[in-house]
Design goal:
387 residues, alpha/beta, Spo0b-associated Gtp-binding Protein, Chain: A, Rossmann fold, six-stranded mixed sheet, five-stranded mixed sheet, 17% helix, rod-shaped
């Protein structure tokens, strides 16, 4: 299936049912009085994060979603049936925005998380609600309120612990094939990877992490060169970036240090926060050079970049050094999780995220077309007649 990470849809909640204007008519019961029931509540529209979906391609086909409206009220004080709520399945990691206001309504980051995006209209009052000592035979009734209507923008950001960064043909897809069961396309020409790929890296029993491979970046990507920087958003949820550098480029005029600095600059143009994230150097393709030459080039690149963090000399094609890299990444992630847990226990953490938690329903804020319940003009209400 084609990978799609952006989509626009329209959602329409159900309208409230009309109230009933009915009177009790029964033998030997004169002047039975009003007995019209209220209309039913309109169905609401929810987005629900489900496992097994990894693209928004389905929303390119069906773009309008409507919930069921409430049934009208009936006599004998019968309330109309409420409309069924509509649950729209979306991939985990979907960010939801209101197109008209630009407001972010929610971020579905866990399986089972739900987000209310359009609330159903309230059912109209039946004429029983309008009876009073001075209005014993009311013929007024409420028409029911319309359901909320919204145009939404859906954006998918994949959930991964580690992201791969680098030029085209730096060996990112080869690395993820070497350490996981993912099988992205690998070829000897640039821009082989056209969409993000995820792989689960198993380091031991019950020890694993998710790695994301995105299309390669080139200088000028922020201005639209190559595939641009639109796929960098898929690295925004990662905790660690692995910057792959080809130590044996085919182009004799290529400078790995200059190219690495260009990638870092493009990263900063996209997001300063992403540029400040922990980033390790992974010097790839050591199998193309003699061992001593590969180590010498690796040291030279690290020295010229003035890099002081962890660096690894590997070969994605042969798997040499990938086990050590995976173990180091696993230790880093585990230490980060332990530090976060300690901070939360001591009350020094940054607090819980405002995104939706699994199994919980979150309301997407007040809608612009919410308004007070409409009442017929001239109707007199008792204090105890207000619902």
């Amino acid at each position: 299936m084609k990978f799609v990470d952006e989509a626009r849809i329209k959602v329409q909640a159900g309208h409230g049912g009309r109230g009933s204007a009915s009177f009790r008519r029964e033998k030997f019961v004169p002047f039975g009085g009003p007995d019209g029931g209220d209309g039913g509540q309109g169905g609401s529209v929810y987005l629900r994060a489900v496992a097994g979906i990894n693209t928004l391609a389905d929303f390119r086909v069906e773009r309008t979603y409507k919930a069921q409206s409430g049934e009208p009220g009936r006599g004998r004080d019968c309330t109309g049936a409420a409309g069924a709520d509509l649950f729209i399945p979306v991939p985990v990691g979907t960010v939801v925005r209101d197109i008209e206001t630009g407001e972010q309504l929610g971020d579905l980051t866990e399986v089972g998380a739900q987000l209310l995006v359009a609330r159903g209209g309230k059912g109209g009052w039946g004429n029983t609600r309008f009876k009073s000592s001075t209005n014993r035979a009311p013929r007024q009734f409420g028409p029911g309120l319309p359901g909320e209507k919204r145009a939404l923008e859906l954006e998918l950001k994949v959930l991964a612990d580690v992201g791969l960064l680098g030029l085209p043909n730096a060996g990112k897809s080869t690395l993820i094939r070497a350490v996981s069961a993912a099988r992205p396309k690998v070829a000897d020409y640039p821009f082989t990877t056209l969409h993000p790929n995820l792989g689960v890296v198993a380091v031991g029993e019950h020890r694993s992490f998710v790695m994301a491979d995105i299309p390669g970046l080139i200088e000028g990507a922020a201005e639209g060169a190559g595939l641009g920087i639109r796929f960098l958003k898929h690295l925004q949820r990662t905790r660690l970036l692995l910057h792959l550098i080809d130590i044996a480029p085919l182009d004799p005029h290529a400078d790995p240090v200059r190219d690495a600095r260009a990638i870092i600059a493009e990263l900063g143009k996209f997001s300063p926060d992403l540029a400040a994230r922990p980033r390790w150097l992974v010097l790839n393709k050591r199998d193309l050079l003699p061992a001593e030459e590969a180590e010498r080039r690796a040291r030279e690149i690290v020295r010229r970049l003035r890099y002081r963090g962890p660096s690894f000399l590997i070969s994605g094609a042969t798997g040499q050094g990938t086990r050590e890299l995976s173990e180091a990444v696993m230790r880093f992630l585990k230490q980060g999780a332990a530090s976060a847990g300690t901070g939360a226990a001591l009350g020094t953490g940054t607090g819980t995220d405002s995104s939706t938690t699994a199994g919980a329903s979150t309301t997407a804020g007040p809608s612009r077309n919410r308004r007070p319940h409409a009442r017929p003009s001239g109707a007199k209400l008792r204090r105890d007649a207000t619902p």
